[in-house]
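Troubleshooting log. The previous structure file for this entry was overwritten by mistake, so regenerating from the original sequence record. Sequence copied from the archived sheet and checked twice against the printout by T.R.
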Amino acid sequence: MQIRKKTIPVLSPTGGKEEINAIAKTIRSGWWGRGSQVEELEKKFAKLVKAKYAVSTLSNTTGLDLVLKAYGINGGNIISPTVSWVTTAMVPLWNNCENKLCDINAIDRNLCPKDVKKLVNKNTKAIISVNYAGIQCNTKPLRKFFKGLIIEDCALSCYTPGAGKSGDVAIWSFQAVKTISCGDGGIITTNSRELYKKLKSLTYFGITQDTYKRATTRGKKSMLKPGYVWDFDVKSIGYKAYMNDLQASMLLAQLKKLKGFIKRRMQIQKFYNDNLPKEIGRPEYSGTCQFYSASVKKEYRAELMEFLAKKKIHTTVHYKPLHMHPIFKQKRKFPVADVEWEKFISFPCHSAMTLGDAKYIVYFVNKFFDKKNKNIRIN
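Regenerated output below.
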């Protein structure tokens, strides 16, 4: 097979004229801050994931920070899986919390409830459950021994059916290579009106009514009529963490394409499962396949990745365990994560790909192992 000139990225956003037109319309509207587009996005996203309320933010990371602040968490410890992105271990440090990283299950790579149970104590303020690669984490066993706050990190599971339902509050990501994206952004979903009101205030300096509401309000009984109420009150500490209408308008266009995006990822997931060689371990089924994180013997991984790079195929590892970073170092063992992560290999999987791309990738993965099995020099 002829080598391609352009590399197939492991992850990539997908956009087009719909997103361009949506942003252009917002630019022409003259309202670029948090306004009607953000409100529409929050309502539609809450409906999608079957939550009562949604609060958009600058990022999933910002969302996690705001949730901890809304619950008044400052100090104590927070438990999260060691196989995760930096966010889940970094944000607790911003809130003076001790990180307690837990081991993972070998199969789904989500947190291991048995290991979590060893870590829970009277100072545990929350457990962060991550849906690895969009694979739903089972949090039911946690409720048998922990009655506190469970935060479901859905950054990789937009939208896996049932995601956002297994914790007390959920945080989502619209970062550049997520299922739908606006470059960066996030959203928090909850069924608690009290938490919703706290979060809305926290995203805008503790101000009770944002500029859009004041610009479209003239008295309590005439909401959304032309006018401007310049006065406002700051009742609590807050932050500048809100999404704007430019981002939201792009996401509203992306939201219309979500089913199609997921369908393509599912096609690629199935094609890989059906056609990759036996030497590649298949991951658990994912409802989004945010990335296709397979496994291969550690003695083959670096060589395979280098071989594929020469064929213009980008691969990566999701993720190096957090306890291996100096800032998150733990005084305990991780018998599963320490072994399993050395086998992780992620192949390209995103909605900008074609099945032809997937066939090209599978061809060269098979080619690598054909040569390996025949003791032919790899090049």
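The longest helix spans residues 355-373. Archived copy saved in two places this time.
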